[in-house]
Amino acid sequence: MPQAAVAWGPAAAWLRARVDRVTAPVRQRLHVTSSRDVLVLFGAADDLPWVSGVAYAAPSADAPSLWLPTLWSPDVPADLLARALAARHGRTPLLLWPDPAAIVPLDRQGPLAAPPAGN
Residue 66 forms beta bridges with which residues? Predict the structure, then answer.
């Protein structure tokens, strides 16, 4: 079950625009982290908006500190991979993304900001 919507490049802007239109109660339940290349929106599966180009992620059942795309699994045991990545990056949780290949720290998420005025 997805617990995050993940958007790269143009899809990140589309997801942000879509999130600006969600209701206030849903907005209060969502959290976000982002960088120059990716936007990760956290929440219950029913609260996560659908936008073209967005994929979904969730914590691994075998290693909750390792988040993975819901439609992908690594070729190595997730618990060993999680330990190796945590040791290398010195923080958790981490999102491992295969395409584009990236490791995204998820330890600095915050509440979703209020929508722009007029929305």
Answer: 94
